[in-house]
Amino acid sequence: MFPFQINVVSLPVKHNFRHIKVREIALFEGPQGWSEFAPFTEYNHKESATWLKAALEAAITPAPKQIRGDISVNATLPNVKVDQVGKLLAGFNGCTTVKVKVNDFVHDHLLLQEVSRHIPRVKFRLDVNGGWSLEEAIANLRNYLQEFPGQIDYVEQPCSDIADLKLLRQSVNIQIAVDESIRKFLGSDLTKLREVADVAIIKWAPSGGFSASLELIEKIQLPVVVSSALDSSVGISHGLSLAAAVPNLYGACGLATTALLDADVTSKPLVAENGSIKNRKVIPDLLEQFKAAPTRQEWWQNRVNEIYEQVLI
Ligand SMILES: [Mg+2]
Fold first, then answer.
1. Residue 57 Cα, ligand 1 centroid: separation in angstroms?
2. Are 271 and 93 a contacting pair, CB within 8 Å?
3. What are the structural domains, with CATH classification, of the chain?
4. Which of 100, 103, 211, 251 lies 20 to 30 Å (CA to CA) from residue 226?
5. Distance (Å) of CA 275 to CA 42, 143, 253, 291, 310
6. pLDDT of residue 17
7. Distance 294 CA to ligand 1 centre (A)
8. Radius of gyration of the chain (CA)
9. Does the pLDDT at position 16 exceed 70?
């Protein structure tokens, strides 16, 4: 049996991010404070076990040595309609770097233009989630670079195949960040990513927690952007603790994402202020208010128990 009592919440999501309307999160309190376990519901036990390892570590073990205080953060914009951009950006106070989920140039350059209207000297990070072939990546990125000269910070996982990333890098003058290439290949030799990418995206929970992430970062030896996975402020606080401990942080981190939720587990959420977030321990004082239905509590309790017993111990 999982050793801590879990509290499952169901938080409404603002804009159908990842095509979900509510974000279910299991929270529990350990000797070091609150932690959260929230792999997406379709994830299998093996993949989710990495998230549980992270959650347990944060509840039981002190956070790694912090080498910086405030963490600068980027805004995160889902692939929304142009008329929703202003309202969403308002949740990311002072952020001048905006990560945008893009599919292609033809439709999505309008999104970027709208962002520029709100933040004139914006830097963009384009997240493709591995969705382009090499040819599509070359064509789309040439268009983006031409339309927004000097404004594209990097493109995140333009293609899923590492060989394609390598060829892309030889064809287009743009920085490449890898996300899925790390997350989906945790057990393999990731040192070769240095040949195909400029930035490593590291997420606290999917990487297996503080020490696993720091080990990974040391192995990959690329500048790091710590990002999140639609966490509540509790998960974000652990992402911030990780970012505060990373020696080679690249720049703004993707940790302002509580702005994509319509509610949080705390009345004092961790949100961007002047483009950064100051880390602190989070007490989830709104657990009762957003408590999930009994059937969902039971589903998560079973999930946690099974993963704990079958995979972790
Ligand atoms: Mg990504």
1. 24
2. yes
3. 7-62+287-312 (3.30.390.10), 71-277 (3.20.20.120)
4. 103
5. 33, 28, 10, 31, 42
6. 65
7. 33
8. 19
9. no
Please return the burial class of 234, using the count of CB atoms within 10 Å of its CB with bins 0-12, 13-18 and 19+. Answer: buried
| Residue 245 CA, distance from chain mean position | 17
Say whether pTM exceeds 0.85: yes
Q: Which tokens is 310 given?
A: 């079958």
- pLDDT-based confidence at residue 19 (cuts at 50, 70, 90): confident
175 CA to middle of ligand 1, Å?
Answer: 14
Q: What's the rounded mean pLDDT across residues 239-259?
A: 98
Is residue 246 within 8 A of residue 6, CB to CB? The reply is no
Amino acid in position 263: A
Neighbours of 17 (CB within 10 A): 19
Catalytic residues: 101, 203
**Cα angle for residues 291, 296, 258 (degrees, 5° grid):** 50
**Burial (0-12, 13-18, 19+ Cβ within 10 Å), 97:** buried
Centroid of ligand 1 to alpha carbon of 69 (angstroms): 25
Q: What is the distance in A from the centroid of ligand 1 to the CA of 201?
A: 7
How many whole angstroms from 156 Cα to the centroid of ligand 1? 6
DSSP assignment of 252-285 equals -BB--GGGGBS--SSSS----BTTEE-------T
- Residue 119: both structure tokens together: 């933040």
Residue 226 has pLDDT above 90, yes or no: yes
Q: Tell me, rounded to whole angstroms, the distance of Cα 235 from its chain centroid.
A: 10
Residue owning tokens 């789309």: 140
For 134, list phi and psi in degrees, rounded to 5. -55, -45
d(CA 257, CA 272): 9
Structure-token match 């064509």, residue found: 139
- Is the Cβ–Cβ distance between 55 and 208 less than 8 Å? no
Tell me how far CA of residue 278 lies from CA of 243, 270, 275, in angstroms.
Answer: 11, 8, 10
Cα of 231 vs centre of ligand 1, distance in Å, is: 14
> Looking at the DSSP assignment, which residues form a beta bridge with residue 161?
none
Q: What confidence tens digit (pLDDT) does each residue in 295-307 have?
A: 999 999 999 999 9
